């Protein structure tokens, strides 16, 4: 048993929090280990795409952030290795340049991570979860857990770009157990967006604030491969009228004609998923499309992308109580009946596979499966305050990025909430990105 007298906040709460943090750190590290041990050293050092870091950069960067925030800042300990801070600073080293850096070789990177983690366990045993914002509710530990899991998702995306035989294996996602389709009408009115209370929510999810929305309709499920293939078959990629000027220019320059990783297979399509070619399955959410493609599809379908607020209201608003939930299904953490998360499977689940994860209004698969593009550019909520550093999100605010919501099959549950916000450039599609559509409602469809 651990002694707790020496801690300012000990007792059951502190002990439970310590156990939870230790378990989450271990879960993240098991995933990092899996993703970096299924390939050889050459593969770890190689850059599989100019969009991505060599896996060995992500690996040591995860350790370096853990050292900076937990060992040095929270723990006030001596640096383990301050000579490598620059190398693993994501702002100083653009991804395309990272392969040319004098990176720690795999064995050295692994040893570095282990040393840092030992020190973190040491200080976790002794830390007092005081009111200091960085440590209250174990925030810094939660931030580091989420950081590692986010890099694990990035490393999973690197695996998807890697050529060569399959090295990752997982059972297929569950089959549909409900018929889901069409749209859901969301009545006009206020809801609470963002959070003040989720202890590990990041700065850009805060604060909670009221947002008033007109009535709208949103798809009950993400757009499927079958629907997207119909857009392609109808000349979606060759008709300029569906595309924004910037989107069309990008489509032409990059010669986009289908989602990334698709190829023609007779009259059908196949896709490559982690080194295996499969027939495209019609009832799975489409993945690996950029924002411009999503926008063009929506225009073709006579709809539009949802705003970020529309996405969040559909996901969190409970009409019977008027409050916003942590997740579509309630306040409980996700389990495997709720959503396709945690890299349990290596692709999105068919529509209808998670009826227990639907929102009160009947919107399905908002969490997990695919990140969903919204029409909204990335900015702070009203009253935003950068914490604990501007580089986490504030430096990305502005018109360059679009917000994605909900997490994918490759997102860990610790880094996914009804309030969690992701962002990327509108041209990116190496991420696990899909979308659903929304539209304004006509007055005759409106609620009373
Ligand atoms: Fe990072």
From TrEMBL:
Catalytically driven reaction(s): gamma-L-glutamyl-L-cysteine + hercynine + O2 = gamma-L-glutamyl-hercynylcysteine S-oxide + H2O
Keywords: Iron, Metal-binding, Monooxygenase, Oxidoreductase
Record flagged with keyword Metal-binding: yes
Enzyme class: oxidoreductase
Binding site for gamma-L-glutamyl-L-cysteine: 95-98, 424, 428
Cofactor(s) the protein needs: Fe(2+)
Pathway(s) where this gene product acts: Amino-acid biosynthesis; ergothioneine biosynthesis
Sulfatase-modifying factor enzyme-like domain location: 182-439
Residue ranges occupied by any DinB-like domain in the UniProt entry: 25-155
Annotated InterPro entries: CTDL_fold, DinB-like, DinB/YfiT-like, EgtB, EgtB_Actinobacteria, Sulfatase_Mod_Factor_Kinase, SUMF_dom, SUMF_sf
One Pfam match: DinB_2
Residues at which Fe cation binds: 61, 147, 151
Protein name as annotated: Hercynine oxygenase
């Amino acid at each position: 048993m651990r002694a707790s007298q020496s801690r300012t906040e000990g007792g059951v709460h502190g002990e439970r929090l310590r156990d939870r943090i230790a378990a989450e750190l271990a879960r993240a590290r098991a995933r990092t280990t899996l993703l970096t041990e299924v390939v050889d050293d050459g593969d770890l050092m190689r850059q599989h795409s100019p969009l991505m870091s060599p896996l060995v950069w992500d690996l040591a960067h995860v350790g370096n952030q853990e050292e900076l925030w937990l060992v040095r800042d929270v723990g006030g300990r001596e640096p383990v290795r301050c000579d490598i801070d620059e190398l693993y600073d994501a702002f100083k080293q653009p991804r395309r340049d990272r392969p040319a850096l004098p990176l720690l070789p795999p064995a050295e990177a692994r040893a570095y991570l282990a040393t840092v983690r030992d020190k973190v366990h040491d200080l976790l045993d002794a830390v007092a979860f005081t009111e200091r914002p960085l440590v209250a509710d174990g925030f810094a530990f939660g931030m580091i857990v989420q950081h590692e899991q986010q890099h694990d998702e990035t490393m999973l995306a690197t695996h998807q770009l890697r050529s060569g035989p399959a090295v990752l294996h997982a059972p297929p996602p569950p089959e549909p157990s409900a018929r889901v389709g069409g749209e859901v009408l969301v009545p006009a009115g206020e809801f609470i967006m963002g959070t003040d209370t989720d202890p590990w929510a990041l700065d850009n999810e805060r604060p909670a604030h009221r947002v008033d929305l007109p009535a709208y309709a949103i798809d009950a499920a993400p757009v499927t491969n079958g629907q997207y293939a119909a857009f392609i078959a109808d000349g979606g990629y060759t008709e300029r009228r569906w595309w924004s000027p910037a989107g069309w220019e990008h489509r032409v320059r990059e010669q986009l004609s289908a989602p990334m990783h698709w190829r023609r297979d007779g009259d059908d399509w196949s896709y490559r998923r982690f080194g295996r070619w499969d027939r495209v399955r019609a009832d799975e959410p489409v993945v690996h499309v950029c924002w411009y493609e999503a926008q063009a599809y929506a225009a073709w379908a006579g709809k539009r992308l949802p705003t970020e607020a529309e996405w969040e209201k559909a996901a969190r608003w409970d009409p019977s109580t008027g409050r916003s939930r942590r997740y579509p299904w309630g306040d409980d953490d996700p389990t495997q009946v709720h959503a396709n998360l945690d890299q349990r499977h290596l692709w999105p689940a068919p529509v209808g596979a998670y009826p227990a994860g639907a929102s009160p209004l009947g919107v399905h698969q908002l969490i997990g499966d695919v990140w969903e593009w919204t029409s909204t550019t990335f900015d702070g909520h009203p009253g935003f305050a950068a914490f604990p550093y501007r580089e986490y999100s504030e430096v990305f605010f502005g018109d360059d990025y679009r917000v994605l919501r909900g997490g994918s099959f490759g997102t860990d549950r610790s880094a996914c909430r009804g309030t969690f916000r992701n962002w990327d450039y509108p041209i990116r599609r190496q991420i696990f990105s899909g979308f659903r559509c929304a539209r304004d409602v006509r007055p005759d469809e409106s609620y009373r």
